[in-house]
Each structure stands twice: as C-alpha cells, then as structure tokens.
Write a structure and sequence with these properties.
about 240 residues; alpha/beta; 5-stranded parallel β-sheet; 4-stranded antiparallel β-sheet; 8 helices; 12 strands; binds calcium ion
C-alpha cells in the first residue's frame, strides 16, 4: 500500500504540536491546518488519505468541515475533540466521520487509531480490486476487458474517456472537483485545463447518450466539477 498522507486539523497549537511530533517520529507524512477553511482547501489540493479533525475550530464548525469534505472525498476522517458529549460524536459520524478520539488521549491510542484507519483503507482498496465489473443503472464497466456497455450495447471510448469514466464510477455518488479529476487522469504537473476537461466530458457524455438519450451518468456541478449519480436501471424505452 502506498504511503498515506495525513491532514491534521487543530487550532490548539500545543495539541497540534503533540500530534505532528508523534506523526513525524513514526514516519508518517502529514500536512496541517489550524482553521476549517484551510482544512477544506488543503484537502482539495493534497488529497490526504486520512484526516485527524478537531471539531471546535475558530471559523467554521468541524461538522460542516466533515460535510464539505465528505461530499467529494473518501478520506478516512477521525474526529479529535474535547467535546465528550455523545451527541457530537454521533452527529460527526452521521455526517461522514469514520472514528473519533476524545481529548485527552494518549499517543498510543492515537497511533492505534491510525493503524486501524490504514487497515480500513487497505480493505476498501482490496474490495475495489476484487470487483471486476461495475454496474450502475444501464452502465456496466468490465475492468478486466475494459469493455463499457450501456443497456447491453458496447460504447467505444478513447483511453482518456475510459479513464474519466472509471474515475467517476469508482467515486459514484460523490462530487469530484476539476482539480481532483485532472490530477488523477493526467497526473501532477501536466498542463491540462478545465476547458480541455470539459471537452473530454462532453464527448464522453455524447457517446453514452447516443445509446440512451435520457441517460444522465455525468452530472455537471458548475464551477466545482462532475459527479456520476448512483442510478437505478431505466425502464425499457422500446
Ligand atoms: Ca479546538
């Protein structure tokens, strides 16, 4: 498994130092933020695999940070909070957090949670590899043969269109930002802009709709990115 990047969000400098020092000593790669807005922005630009999030932040509430990040990221989110009330934890988990740690916590407890999060990430990755066919409504993607069909009819895609569709499928139900898509399809440092991405998406959408005109497999979120909604099969049009 690749090395994970951890985002630490904490406005209390002494707690932040304790966590980052622990991560450094244990050879974890990390970035840190002291406000909610900074956390959302760093998450969008750095795609951390794990987020350690304080709920009480100076600008926006931690719950709102979770909701925002969760709308387009599958990162494992562990809440670190001084709030002992169960209601806050439940609200955080319902909003998309994976686990929580209550202050004060021990270093050993923190490291154990990080190890558990990594096992969970590895399990998710393995499950994804095991499933050879993706099905969403009338769309199927057979990853082994790279065969894409809509309502049983093969769709001929270019290599980039296939990768775009696979990325949207792997994140079905989540909004993917322009920069996230560009990073994942073309890699860092490659000059591809949003206008080019729009052209590729239009072409992909056109090929899918050529078979089923009513099919909405790619939703545009203006100014943000794209999303493949989870679909039920359409009723037969014939
Ligand atoms: Ca705080």
């Amino acid at each position: 498994m690749d090395e994970i990047k951890i985002l630490v969000v904490e406005d209390d400098r002494s707690v932040l130092n304790l966590i980052t020092t622990t991560l450094k000593i244990n050879h974890y790669s990390y970035i840190s933020a002291t406000t909610g807005n900074e956390a959302v922005s760093l998450c969008a630009s750095h795609h951390p695999g794990l987020i350690l999030l304080d709920l009480g932040l100076p600008d926006i509430d931690g719950i709102d940070v979770i909701r925002t990040i969760r709308s387009w990221s599958s990162a494992v989110i562990i809440i670190i909070s001084a709030r002992g009330e169960d209601n806050d934890k439940i609200l955080a988990l319902d909003s998309g957090a994976d686990d929580y740690l209550t202050k004060p916590f021990s270093i050993e407890e923190l490291l154990a949670r990080i190890r558990a999060a990594r096992r969970r990430m590895q399990y998710i990755a393995e499950q994804e590899e095991k499933s050879p066919v993706f099905i969403n409504g009338d769309l199927t993607i057979d990853y082994a043969s790279r065969l894409v069909t809509v309502a049983g009819t093969e769709v001929h895609l270019t290599a980039i269109e296939y990768r775009l569709l696979s990325l949207l499928a792997a994140n079905a139900g989540k909004v993917l930002t322009h920069s996230y898509i560009i990073d994942h399809i073309w890699g860092g440092g490659v000059e591809t802009d949003i206008i080019s991405l729009r052209v590729y998406m239009a072409s992909l959408r056109k090929k899918l709709r050529a078979i089923r005109p009513g099919l909405n497999l790619i939703e545009t979120h203006i100014g943000i990115g794209y999303q493949m909604p989870r679909l039920q099969a359409l009723p037969d049009e014939g």
